[in-house]
Structures are given as C-alpha cells and as structure tokens.
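Journal club side-thread
Mid-discussion, someone asked how the predicted structure for our own chain would compare to the paper's figures. Pasting it here so we can look after the session.
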Amino acid sequence: MLRPEAGEVETVGVRTVLVVRRDLPDRAAYAVAELLFAAKPRLVATYAEARRTDPRSAVETYPLALHPGAARYYRDAKPMA
C-alpha cells in the first residue's frame, strides 16, 4: 500500500490493439473498424473497459502501422471533426 508521503510513482499503461494480417483485404479491415465502434454499447455491457474505445485515439497505433482499410474508415468517419 502506498502512503501519501511516498511521492510520485511511475506506472505502465498498456493499450488494447486489434492486430490483423497485412494481407487482410482493405474492405474487411474497414468493416472491422466500423463494427467495433457500432458495437461499442454491447462491448461496454460485457467489458466495462471498452468504454475507453474512442475513434480519436484508435488511430494512434505507433509503432504498428494502421491498416489501410482501417485508415480509410477513420478518414470517412472523421473522428477528429
């Protein structure tokens, strides 16, 4: 147990990343991204941490490249607008 006088504590954050094969067709990757956000209410009902699923931060996949089909979904959905 940490005491208030213990000071700052470094922690590690771990992101959840959906990884697909490079050869997944663009249409399929687009559909997966679209379905993920469409199904968010059902996902949250099953797994509370799914509430953190946000299309604005989902594009941040460094050091992994975003699949071209998923990138197209985010461009079309315009999550930053």
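Post-session note: Residues 59 and 71 are 8 Å apart (CA to CA).
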